[in-house]
Amino acid sequence: MRRRAADRDACAWPMPSFEARSSEADRHQVIIVGAGIGGLTAGALLAKRGVKVLLVESHNRPGGYCSCWTRTSARGGSFRFDAGVQDFSGLGERGPIRHLLRALDVEQRIEWRRVRHFYKKDGLGFQVPDDPAEMVEALGALFPAERAGIASFLHEMAAVYRDLYADIEMTGGVPMPPATLEGMLIWPSTHPHAWRWMKRPFTEMLDTFLVDPRLKDLLTTVADYITDRPDTLSVADMAPLFGYYFDGGAYPVGGSQRLADLLSAVIEEHGGQVLLRTRIKRILVENGRVAGVESAIGKVHRAPIVVANGDVVSMLTDLVGETHLTARYLEKLRAMRRGPSAILLSLGLDRVPDLPARIFVRQDGLVFGIGNPSVIDPTLAPPGCAAVTLLCLLSDEAASAWRRKDAGYRDDKDRFADRLIAATEASVLPGLKRSIIHREVASPPTFTLFAKTRNGNIYGAARDQWHPRIKSPVPGLLLVGAGTSTGPGIEAVVVSGTAAANLVTAS
Predict the structure, then answer these.
(1) Domains of the chain, first to last
(2) How far apart are alpha carbons 387 and 471 in whole angstroms?
(3) How far apart are CA 264 and CA 176, in angstroms?
(4) Quick check: helix, strand or coil at residue 372?
(5) Residue 417, Cβ neighbours under 10 Å: how many?
(6) What are the E-state strand segments in 329-378?
(7) The overall pTM is greater than 0.90
(8) For residue range 46-61, what is the model confidence (pLDDT) as tens digits?
(9) Which distant-in-sequence residues (6+ apart) come within 8 Å of 461 by Cβ?
């Protein structure tokens, strides 16, 4: 308890009072480093609230893994591929993304299509029903002896899910317990299901209601959205992911870049500035607190608050500097393990597969997801064609073995891609190889280059460990993104960006 109190005290600095909005081009009220969705969320909310915001991003487009890229097709037109994100949770009536879009008054400026799921795991197939009320019947048909347990489990998880988002209108769009002591005292009685389960392992909850390991495996499938180690997840980690079942997942028409571009546009529409192709050399700390940033070409921008959106270890050790961190905080930071990286195979096909937009496969020793968004958004490919991606997670240890300069690196990528194609043909899509008219493979070194992460990790830090809170021990420095306490996934990083914006404007 003393250690926890000391950690809280280290991050208990007061938010600065803003001076009048400056007309000088290099003076801002908040600077955001990194245009991932966490940074874009914070920037859009702050700009909408009248804060002078500067957002800087080293890439040529905003969004991070929530972005798109195109390749010209030999048949005319082009394929639009997503860098990673193809399924969004958090769009229910109380979902954080829905709350964000409403707070920004842009809900009508983006069109969403429902994403349906299909699982094929070692020959066992399961089509996830659109109506959550039909989940018990659909799973019970596969596991009749477990029907009662399935009903009890889904009823309890739905209650946890409702508890989690019950107060989102009162907590500024962030699913969290109340901040006041009085609210905390009554929270267990008003949110009994969340209170009972949130801190417990998800495996324990499954074991309480279910027996068949294949059934438990099916109900853990969506964990692939945030980790390669589902056994490490708590009920708090998994409950938001069950939003894919209770509220449905969705895909923005035009690709994941649509959300990033919309948030970037909101910043600029409200007087903020977005600088792309701008690398930050360091976050300035003067007299013990944040003072702004310096770019790689020596340009200095000043602000009393900096929001860092990126690999938290790199941001704090490389851009801030270890001398500005407490010994205990630095020790925990150095001990952080990165999450998984991946092999991403992007395919242009001469047909649209007769499959749902999202498929999860386990076949021939490979576990991977297939994105088939062209089935719900034909604009992503030439007429009659499809942009399809296969994403296979790699553990931190496996990812470290991939090095761009190694002899045979390109051959290794091609062999892995061939394995994924063969496994897809054997499980859900016969004849896939004959339909390929464009093929491109990304590996851990690709993601390292793209997202400036040290092992190409795509989900931030591993889940079963300490994570830094949004408020860092450096006065004026806030952290958002997948490596923070809110966790990975678009919904989670929207929560981090919303929480950061609320901290800034609360004072």
Answers:
(1) 2-64+256-335+466-506 (3.50.50.60), 68-89+338-451 (3.90.660), 130-251 (no CATH)
(2) 40
(3) 26
(4) coil
(5) 21
(6) 341-349, 358-363, 366-371
(7) yes
(8) 999 999 999 999 999 9
(9) 312, 313, 336, 337, 338, 339, 467, 482, 483
